[in-house]
Amino acid sequence: QVQLVESGGGLVQSGGSLRLSCAASGIVSIYALAWYRQAPGKQRELVAFITSGGTTNYADSVKGRFTISRDNAKNSVYLEMNSLKPEDTAVYYCNRGTSYSGTYYARDYWGQGTQVTVSS
Q: For the segment 51-69, what is each residue's pLDDT rounded down to a tens digit?
């Protein structure tokens, strides 16, 4: 069973930037990797994912502002977040899963998440 540890969250002003990191305990190179977020009172939503081949996919709400990347040698995935807005406030989680035809399929392994708070 893989363990995922997210880090890099914090409090930032609107328009600011943060870089989230996620380290996995097991191999990630053959898997797709993703970032999700969950705001208070809302369902967890997919923010971005990257396939094993490096193809990226983003939710419309973050397209052009967030960048997902991976480092297979470090079993890690990253989320660079720019031009942050108050509506980006949430707990952010990474996930190791699979992807097929542009769709991400999450596996039921979740870390503790990292809190991102954007003040207006």
A: 999 999 999 999 999 999 9
